[in-house]
Design brief:
Layout (H helix, E strand, L loop, with lengths): L1 E8 L3 H10 L6 E4 L16 E2 L10 H9 L3 H8 L3 E2 L3 E5 L2 H16 L6 E4 H7 L9 E5 L3 E3 L1 H14 L3 E3 L4 E7 L2 E7 L2 E10 L5 H7 L6 E12 L10 E2 L11 E4 L5 E4 L3 E2 L10 H14 L8 E13 L4 E5 L2 E8 L5 H18 L25 H10 L6 E3 L4 E2 H9 L7 H8 L12 H12 L22
Parallel strand pairs: 1-2, 1-12, 2-9, 5-14, 12-20
Antiparallel strand pairs: 3-8, 4-8, 5-7, 6-7, 10-11, 11-12, 13-16, 13-17, 13-18, 15-16, 19-20, 21-22
Helix pairs in contact: 1-6, 1-9, 2-9, 11-13
The chain binds flavin-adenine dinucleotide (FAD).
Flavin-adenine dinucleotide binds next to helix 1, strand 18 and helix 9.
Length: 479
């Protein structure tokens, strides 16, 4: 039987951030993830904004952790080689009613200690964002709202954790947790049992199911769907900052912002569902985005859409971010209600949980050889011609462009496959490198990526998957 000090259930942003944090200590940490790849569920389908926490409910744990997390991203993203930009956000008011809400929103930001929020006049807003509805009356500027590559954030956190000794069991579902004399002893998985002193439930949408294994499901989780459009990089109407609507009680509302790679992101909806697997998009949802966003940016050109997607927020009932330890259940930490700001908060949640475990008696000695640095796969599209030439001289496969839309080379794909916790599927390559994320959505590079995966992994093309088992893309030769 495998032995661990800590087992983390779930390798989304939260589980991966916690794995990296715990890898700073002399601990045997194992992460159990039911999906075949890293990156979680919600963590790979969100707005990709690193929030400041200006609009969180003051005094809550969520506010504390989001506000604390935001400043960590400058150093973290440099150390882990993750694309990140502090582009700032605008919260424009277009009606008298919205305008009257601005002082209260600014006060909320002050209560959350986000002191750099400023009021701008309508004229000032139009000067920085000329595509705003000209009826704008004034608004707030939140300078540290930022954008990130959410896929690479999770992958980089996990890769760095693995390089520092954490073991990841991918494609492995936690099916039960054994408790003896009021303490967790064993995590049961589809790949066998793991003896452990601590278990952290970071299972996102399914955290209620996992909490049920130890009798701590005093809440339940429902999915709150968010649908999005992604527009072409050359779309006719762009914005340079994150344009946020005045929030409502249910949602932060539908926004428009650039992605870290220069597309425009428009959405999301907020639809309460029961089915935790329903990631479809639909006409009603997409039309509601169009109607709402056009009130802020009338010329948004949705005909430039290159794809649509949706993600599921883990809505806790009753709601709120909760991090629980229990007097009657030693060694168990339950995370729930990581909902709309969890990508941002993940790195602060990781520190909070680690501290909670150490305070609670977990023996943890700092490692002397923790390496905080991860060198990512070279991003060929962003290199100068001289840098490209140097790379090709070292490895000619960098001279072979596979994805024309996003300028991804064979050399990059090989690196992404062979590095720590490397890509095993077409989506794995896509999320690590963007091959297939451009305007042709993989129409050109898809077959070539399959070919490279097949060659590098030593499997037949028919065995290459899009993502999870059962998603094989080829059935055989037609002639
Ligand atoms: C539409 C939308 C927009 C959002 N926008 C933002 C934003 O702009 N900024 C922001 O900060 N946050 C945003 N969020 C929230 C953020 O994406 C989530 O809060 C965050 O990703 C949650 O991370 P997680 O690790 O808790 O969950 P997940 O990413 O869902 O990861 C949980 C993991 O646990 C695994 N798992 C579950 N059960 C088991 C089991 N039994 N055994 C093994 N593994 C298991 C799952 O497979 C999954 O990989 C948004 C969310 C959505 C849906």
């Amino acid at each position: 039987m495998k032995q661990a000090d800590v087992v983390i259930i779930g390798a989304g942003a939260v589980g991966s951030a916690l794995a990296r944090e715990l890898s700073k200590y002399e601990l045997k940490v194992i992460v159990v993830e039911k999906n075949e790849d890293l990156g979680g569920d919600s963590s790979k389908s969100n707005s990709a904004i690193i929030h400041t926490g200006y609009d969180a409910k003051p005094g809550t744990l969520e506010s504390q952790l989001v506000v604390a997390a935001n400043p960590m991203y400058d150093k973290l993203t440099k150390d882990l080689d993750v694309p990140f930009k502090r582009i700032g956000a605008l919260l424009p008011a277009f009606t008298e009613e919205q305008f009257e809400q601005l002082p209260a929103l600014k006060h909320k930001a002050m209560m959350n200690r986000v002191y750099d929020v400023e009021y701008l006049t309508g004229e000032q807003l139009l000067a920085v964002e000329p595509n705003l509805n000209p009826e704008v009356k004034g608004g707030l500027y939140i300078p540290r709202e930022s954008i990130i590559d959410p896929f690479l954030l999770c992958i980089a956190l996990a890769e760095n954790a693995a390089d520092n000794g954490v073991e990841f069991l991918l494609g492995t579902k936690c099916t039960g947790i054994k408790v003896e004399e009021g303490a967790v002893t064993t995590v049961q998985t589809t790949a066998g049992d793991i003896a452990t002193k601590y278990v952290v439930n970071a299972a996102g949408l399914y955290c209620d199911e996992v909490a049920g294994y130890v009798g701590k499901a005093d809440y339940y989780v429902t999915p709150r769907k968010g649908q999005f459009y992604i527009l072409d990089k050359n779309t006719s109407c762009k914005v340079g900052m994150i344009i946020l609507p005045i929030p409502t009680k249910v949602t932060k509302g539908k926004l428009m912002c650039p992605t870290i790679h220069g597309n425009m992101l428009v959405g999301p909806t907020a639809e309460d569902l029961l089915d935790k697997t329903d990631k479809s998009t639909n006409v009603a949802g997409l039309e509601s985005i169009a109607a709402d966003v056009r009130k802020m940016i009338p010329n948004v050109n949705l005909r430039d859409t290159i794809t649509q997607y949706s993600g599921l927020r883990a809505q806790r009932n009753p709601e709120g971010l909760n991090i629980d330890v229990y007097d009657d259940l030693k060694g168990y930490v339950n995370l729930s209600g990581v909902r709309s700001t969890g990508l941002t908060a993940s790195v602060a949640i990781a520190k909070y949980v680690t501290d909670l475990m150490i305070e609670g008696g977990m023996k943890a000695t700092f490692k002397t050889n923790f390496n905080p640095i991860r060198h990512g796969t070279p991003r060929f599209a962003e290199l100068s011609n001289e840098e490209r030439a140097a790379l090709i001289a070292k490895d000619p496969r960098y001279g072979n462009i596979v994805c024309r839309c996003e300028t991804v080379t064979e050399g990059q794909i090989c690196d992404a496959i062979h590095r720590t916790l490397g890509a095993r599927s077409v989506d794995g390559v896509k999320r690590r490198l963007r091959a297939g994320m451009g305007r042709c959505q993989g129409g050109f590079c898809g077959p070539r990526v399959i070919e490279i995966l097949s060659r590098e992994l030593g499997i037949s093309p028919e065995e290459v998957r899009k993502n999870e088992p059962g998603s094989e893309m080829l059935t055989g030769n037609v002639r």
